[in-house]
């Protein structure tokens, strides 16, 4: 298994901002949070449509009302994550720990 990357709150904020620009204006960069340590992250209302979260550790993360449309959550750990009202249409959840 690949080692998880530590992501600071500031770095996560920048990734989300750039991803929003990518979604809205096709500028910025699509979020690549693959193999990121996002345990207990506050991502409620985040727009992560199309983002790469392959192998991310989202243990206990708050993803309430998050938009994960078409996101790649392959082998992600979503144990104890709050997915209340999250949009998961077309998301790849293959091998994910729910």
Give a topology summary:
Blueprint: E1 5-6, H1 9-25, E2 36-37
Structure summary:
This protein is mainly alpha-helical. It is built from one helix and two strands; from the N terminus they run E-H-E.
Helix content: 10-25%
Uncertain stretches of 5 or more adjacent residues = none
What's the main sheet like? 2 strands, parallel
Kindly estimate the percentage of residues that lie in beta strands according to DSSP.
under 5%
**How many distinct beta strands?**
2
What Rg is obtained from the alpha carbons, in whole angstroms? Answer: 12 Å
H/E element sequence: EHE
- The coarse silhouette is globular
In DSSP terms, counting alpha (H) and pi (I) runs of 4 or more, how many helices? Answer: 1
Distance N terminus to C terminus?
18 Å
Oligomer, anyone? Answer: single chain
Q: Structural class of the secondary structure composition?
A: mainly alpha
Q: Kindly state the mean pLDDT as a whole number?
A: 97
With strands numbered from the N-terminus, the spatial order across the biggest sheet is: 1-2
